[in-house]
Amino acid sequence: MDRKMWHRALVAALVIVTVTGGATAAAADEAHRLTGADPAHESVGGGVAPASTVVALPDLAIAHRLPSGGMNLWRMPLSELEDGFGQPQLVKTLDFGGFSYDNSRTIAGDFGDITASDDGTADHLIWHRQPNGGVLLWAVGGGADTTPRLWHDLRTGGWSYAASTPMVGDVNGDGWDDLVVTHSTGNRGDTNIWVFPSDGTRLTAPQHWATKRSGDSVLPPRFLLGDLSRDGEGRDDVIEVQGDVYRFVGGTLQSVLQYGAWTSGSLQSYYTDAVFYGPKSAGWSFGSSRQLTGDVTGDGLIDVVTVHAQPKGGILVWMHRGCSYDTGTQYCMEAPVVWQDLRTGGWSFAGSRQHLADTDGDGRQDLVSLHSQGGHPGILVWRHRSTGTGLETPEVMADLKTGGWSYASSREAVADLYGTFVG
Ligand SMILES: [Ca+2]
Ligand SMILES: [Ca+2]
Ligand SMILES: [Ca+2]
Ligand SMILES: [Ca+2]
């Protein structure tokens, strides 16, 4: 079953639960995490669980700086279908062995059943700077055994912590998250794209998938992962966001914010036409925006959400809906529309971070915002539920204003995880 069909089945299943169970709350005790495979994996590996029982159970994986310089790793269930919704749970304290919050990047996903006790909660990855400028890659699996495992020693071979950026996605479509690392080559801004494929228990040796030429982008681009291709074949593509490039728009050469995509799933990745040009003259700005990928509409096609700062303060949330009709290009994205106007109410672009996750199990990913608290160090976590055509008024899903939480001393990532209904 492909991802699109799976989402449709999911929505149908929830309708049944709601009707027979009275409310989604009735399902809270019946949601169990999946290990071993997620829906896409089962479609490849020869299906096991009925698709109608599968729901998204994403985790927010938080890394928080310790006074010693180390870090705490936390997980917070993001789905209200699960016990512990919105409540951070400490996974591991890394105050030994040289682990450093400031000298590492942390991401999370579903990289495999890493230990015998892996329970399908977030697996954490630590991309750690070494004294010689290289990298060590550590993993902390979900479940009881949180001993960090050294997966790759990248202190040699030309690896540079400073020149690399780790990302998470499933680029070969087997249902396990893979690590994708963009690495500057030092040659006129060219970028190598490396993939560390998961084998279901760990990330295997890095493979060089592509070299992206710098082209005419003035600013270093941002890279995202998402299955943007029209057929939604289940393999994440590499999406490149460029700023201050000049393109003819409406017959006029203009500075634009531009999104393009690379195919994944083979050793021959290549750049295709940009799917969006946002002219500077219309207010689009690379530096004043950030992009997210996910299925916000619930149709199984990946959408791009752009969170954009506004000149007089606040934020607009734009939706570029993914589409499947024939546009003559391999990729398809509809013109952006505003899904939420947060220009009032104290919303700050610089003082917030956003993610996408399905927080209510309806198959539509919702916007999740972590917001700083002015002069106070803490955090409020908001969810903006997707209706399929817009976002509902944000509501607080976790109040981390006290308890030692610091917006400035933490970072987080969403792990896309799954579970089943029983009964
Ligand atoms: Ca795992
Ligand atoms: Ca994979
Ligand atoms: Ca969609
Ligand atoms: Ca949702």
UniProtKB/TrEMBL annotation:
<dbReference type="InterPro" id="IPR028994">
    <property type="entry name" value="Integrin_alpha_N"/>
</dbReference>
<protein>
    <submittedName>
        <fullName>FG-GAP repeat protein</fullName>
    </submittedName>
</protein>
<dbReference type="InterPro" id="IPR013517">
    <property type="entry name" value="FG-GAP"/>
</dbReference>
<dbReference type="Pfam" id="PF01839">
    <property type="entry name" value="FG-GAP"/>
</dbReference>
<feature type="signal peptide">
    <location>
        <begin position="1"/>
        <end position="25"/>
    </location>
</feature>
<keyword id="KW-0732">Signal</keyword>
